[in-house]
Specification:
alpha/beta, globular
């Protein structure tokens, strides 16, 4: 049986993070985070996320080099993977971005391209991309406009806002230079050349992400 390079696998990295943070977050803080995840799942907030068969929104966003990247231009060349993440302050997002970077050549070999999108300010995006020598486009979604078009964005309730500020020192509105305390649900879309969404993976629990190699396998089947 062929052995897969562990640098290409995301699940075990996220499991280690869950174990690490599980020992460092108090039961009270954990209850608040679980309450919000439950709310996203049960309130119908996830039902607004675009589904396979839907037309993908068109977007033009700045990348880590402050270049304008157009989804239309990318789709003219082949299928497109669009991955939404929260920002470089989120350790789970950092690991996902790294593994996607490791499998990017396989995505390209399958005839597709990849962009990752977050609402964080440009300076953070530039720094993150440079630190890991990112091969693909990391895009800045000012005020979550593109995330909203994909149906992913939620606003923080007060109890969660206070938790992020006091426990983690993360002022999300400041990090994003945004007009509100908002984030996208982490999600990955595969879009066909005709602009139709072929696959969607999204989870209200930010500690879980789809496996990048599964995305590669899907692209190879197209």
């Amino acid at each position: 049986m062929e052995t897969i390079d562990r640098n290409l696998l995301l699940a075990h990295k996220l499991e280690k993070l869950r174990e690490f943070w599980g020992k460092r977050v108090s039961p009270e803080d954990e209850e608040l985070m679980e309450r919000h995840i439950h709310y996203l799942r049960e309130s119908g907030a996830m039902e607004g996320i675009l589904k396979p068969g839907d037309q993908a929104p068109v977007f033009q966003l700045s990348n880590q080099r402050n270049e304008i990247i157009s989804s239309t231009d990318l789709l003219n060349k082949g299928p497109l993977v669009v991955s939404f993440y929260r920002g470089s302050w989120c350790p789970y997002c950092v690991e996902e971005v790294k593994v996607l970077n490791n499998v990017y050549n396989q995505i390209r070999d399958a005839g597709a391209d990849l962009v990752v999108i977050s609402p964080q300010q440009f300076s953070r995006t530039e720094k993150q991309a440079n630190e890991i020598q990112l091969q693909y486009n990391m895009l800045v979604d000012v005020d979550n406009k593109t995330g909203k078009a994909f149906g992913l964005v939620y606003e923080f309730p007060d109890y969660l806002k206070q938790l992020y500020m006091k426990r983690f020192g993360n002022d999300i509105q400041q990090i994003n230079e945004g007009s509100a305390w908002e984030l996208p649900v982490p999600a990955r879309f595969v879009i066909g050349q005709n602009g139709i969404i072929l696959d969607v993976k999204a989870d209200a629990d930010y500690r879980y992400r789809p496996e990048p190699l599964d995305t590669v396998a899907l692209l190879k089947r197209l």
